[in-house]
Design brief:
Elements (H helix, E strand, L loop, with lengths): L2 H21 L17 H20 L2 E3 L9 H20 L3 H6 L1 E6 L2 E7 H23 L18
Helix pairs in contact: 1-3, 1-5, 2-3, 2-5
Amino acid sequence: MSNKEFFLACLQAEFKATYDIVAAIPFDEAGYRPHERSRSAYEIAEHIIAHALDFGVILNNDKCDECLVLPFSSSQDGAEQLKLHWDKAIEVLSDYSDSKWNEESVELLVNGNPLLTMPRANMMWFFLFDIIHHRGQLSTYIRPMGGKNPAVYGYSADTI
């Protein structure tokens, strides 16, 4: 299995848990933050959704000015936006050549300022791991917000 094939399998496997976490946000409590320096649940979800959009930018360009936020109007709307961008990335990546995946570099910009350059494959892994990290943060918010945590890597006490 090539790196690209493994990434595609991981991307497909991580989607459901990410979608379910965003959809589980009690939207009337989306401003919840466990500490004044923490992002709110809404801000974390907005960032996760934006990273799904960034997947497509990374796959189709040699620069990615990180989309730090992508607004949504409800938990279900956010989950559907996530699905739209995630599915597009899977579609593009499915037809990708190994050389384009492994050998071409992408420059990451933040608000137009260069941050780093790395091979496209590494950049995609970087963004997927960041999504998983933020999904974990968000999952710790859901119960204190009055919601029920969906299963991520196994069952959840809220789903059995």
